[in-house]
Amino acid sequence: MTRMTLAKALNAGIRKAMEDDAKVLVMGEDVGKLGGVFRITDGLQKDFGEDRVIDSPLAESGIIGTAVGMAMRGYRPVCEIQFDGFVYPAYDQIVSQVAKLHYRTHGAIRMPMVIRIPFGGGIGAVEHHSESPEAQFAHTPGLKVVTCSNPVDGYFMIQQAIASDDPVIFLEPKRQYHADKADVDESATPAPLFSSRVIKAGTDVTLLGYGPTVKTCLLAAEAAAGEGRSVEVIDLRTLSPLDMGPVYDSVRRTGRAVVVHEAHVNLGMGSEIAARITEHCFYSLEAPVLRVGGFDTPYPPARLEEEFLPDLDRVLDAVDRSIAF
């Protein structure tokens, strides 16, 4: 049992995967000598060498293109995109090659690669450094998309993603990297990678979040309890495929659902989740499924960030509106 931050847990998980499989390698901008801008790969190049922890040029398309070739030759590359907004130069490679090669070759070629993307806001950075592009990847067939919200999940989910034979977009909430610590039992049996989980039981309304909004949802549930309201919180964890079983079970009991994410509400993950809940739980719903998210503008400068991101007040307002319906 080791007490870790999310950053340390991810580092330990990648290290364990590299120790267990010599075909696992890490590549990206400043991942080697510097250890990454968030220090997620700190110490790995020193211990595994420059052939397995590769400092790349500043060329995201080149990182992913090179990784595609390595994956075709039996390696398991773990690519770091330094910031979320930097992924777009690699977008063509991801959606045109990474997502399609297994299908295009009738299963002859697999793409066992992980693309790690720090995502979301909360660190006072401007556009290109605080994006939430998850819906764009979840909309692409052939890609798996997951996101951790805590150190325990970070440690196990990164190893499970690396072991997967499918390409995985691995989203890491950057404002949680160094925020909280948790006890990580490295010998524990982890939950399946593509599964959602109830993390707080409740009876009045179901609150759904993932990545950076899970902590916000838990704080909202705690605040609502002070007003006599019982809020159930689900950490979605996987965005493609969505694991809706626990969601349906919860909503059929509570009759209400609120989805929270930092990305723009328009055509965001909340839209798909709301549609599925409505299709499967229509006769259990006591109110429309509500969404709380970012506004339909480019990411704002730091002084406006708190106004842009879903916060405790906005989540509680949605809970109040749902219950009052």
Summarize the structure in words.
The chain starts with a strand and ends with a helix. The longest helix is centred in the first third of the chain and has 15 residues, at 6-20. It is an alpha/beta fold and 325 residues long. It is globular and about 60 Å long. The strands form three sheets. Strands 3-2-4-5-7-6-12 form a seven-stranded mixed sheet, sandwiched between helices. A five-stranded mixed sheet has the order 9-11-10-13-14, with helices on both faces. Strands 1-8 form a two-stranded antiparallel sheet. Strand 6, helix 7 and strand 7 form a beta-alpha-beta unit. The model has no long low-confidence stretch (mean pLDDT 97). It is built from twelve helices and 14 strands. The protein has helices spanning 6-20, 44-48, 60-72, 91-98, 101-104, 134-138, 151-163, 213-225, 245-254, 269-281, 305-308, 312-324, and strands spanning 2-5, 24-28, 53-55, 76-80, 114-119, 144-147, 168-173, 181-184, 197-200, 205-209, 231-235, 238-240, 257-264, 290-294.
